[in-house]
């Protein structure tokens, strides 16, 4: 998560690479009429840049960005890159996403409700899994809520978008048989957190093994992993094991430091927009 007010440097790459390109930079704005995004030029970039990077100072809110390149006379323009999102740890975001039950991992065939909150009259829940799709493409969207119920295991990233252009934070949601019960939203540094392992129909398991970044950190009969004061060193991937079955791993983010993890949505494109950060205390 990016601290509000930090600087963001966007970087574009054309593949295969060659000289002579001029680069154009845009903000991705939700467009409900097309069910995708419109691309508005960033201030100071309408004429393009010779450099393949563009710095934005004072980024305060979650936003999506894209880029394209052109060369020649008349100018040939590439397609737009897929949007890249920069998620900020804004303590008072204009849009929010709540998950019920409030955890990252859920059982197959369990109903999970994703609810958007904010001042907008129009909302959509977006999902990224091998591409950008609407939650309503697979499940039921009623008002500002989308209810997930899947018989198959999966893991995806979800977030809310409003008709007035706001984005919520993004959350990972996975569906599986054995669950690691962990926070769906970033944990504040210094707070306490308890992780546990669950099977369908079982309220609490004992003799559970917990892993942090694939390193065994607890193996006893307690069945829970308690962290009394979360620090930056506790951030990372967690999973649990019970009777030889291993849960999917979940990322536990910690907010309060200079820089925390970003949820990356898209990695491989012929024309790619990369995002880098310059954070300020």
TrEMBL record:
The keyword Acyltransferase does not apply. One of its GO terms (cellular component) is external side of plasma membrane. The keyword Membrane applies. InterPro entries: Ig-like_dom, Ig-like_dom_sf, Ig-like_fold, Ig_Fc_receptor, Ig_sub, Ig_sub2. Coiled coil: none annotated. GO terms for molecular function: transmembrane signaling receptor activity. The chain crosses the membrane at residues 257-277. It holds the Pfam family Ig_3. Residues 1-78, 187-240 form the Ig-like domain. Gene3D superfamilies: Immunoglobulins (2.60.40.10). One of its GO terms (biological process) is cell surface receptor signaling pathway. SMART domains: IG (SM00409), IGc2 (SM00408). Keywords: Disulfide bond, Membrane, Signal, Transmembrane, Transmembrane helix. This is Ig-like domain-containing protein.
């Amino acid at each position: 998560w990016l601290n509000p007010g930090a600087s963001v440097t966007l970087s574009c790459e054309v593949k295969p690479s060659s000289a002579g390109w001029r680069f154009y930079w845009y903000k991705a704005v939700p467009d409900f009429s097309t069910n995708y995004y419109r691309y508005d030029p960033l201030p100071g970039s309408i004429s393009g840049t010779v450099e393949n990077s563009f710095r934005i100072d004072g980024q305060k809110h979650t936003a999506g960005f894209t880029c394209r390149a052109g060369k020649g006379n008349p100018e040939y323009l590439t397609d737009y890159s897929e949007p890249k999102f920069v998620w900020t740890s804004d303590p008072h975001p204009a849009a929010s996403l709540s998950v019920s039950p409030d955890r990252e991992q859920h059982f197959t065939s369990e109903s999970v409700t994703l609810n958007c909150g904010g001042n907008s009259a129009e909302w959509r829940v977006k999902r990224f899994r091998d591409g950008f799709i609407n939650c309503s493409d697979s499940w039921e969207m009623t008002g500002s809520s989308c209810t997930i119920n899947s018989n198959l295991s999966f893991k995806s990233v979800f977030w809310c978008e409003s008709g007035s252009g706001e984005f919520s934070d993004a959350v990972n949601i996975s569906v599986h048989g054995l669950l690691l019960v962990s926070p769906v939203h970033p944990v504040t540094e210094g707070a306490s957190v308890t992780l546990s392992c669950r099977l369908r129909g079982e309220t609490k398991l004992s003799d559970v093994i917990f892993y942090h970044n694939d390193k065994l950190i607890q193996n006893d009969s307690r069945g829970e992993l308690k962290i009394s004061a979360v620090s930056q060193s506790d951030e990372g991937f967690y999973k649990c094991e019970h009777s030889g079955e291993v849960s999917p791993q979940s990322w536990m983010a910690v907010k309060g430091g200079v820089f925390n993890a970003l949820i990356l949505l898209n990695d491989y494109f012929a024309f790619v927009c990369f995002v880098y950060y310059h954070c300020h205390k």
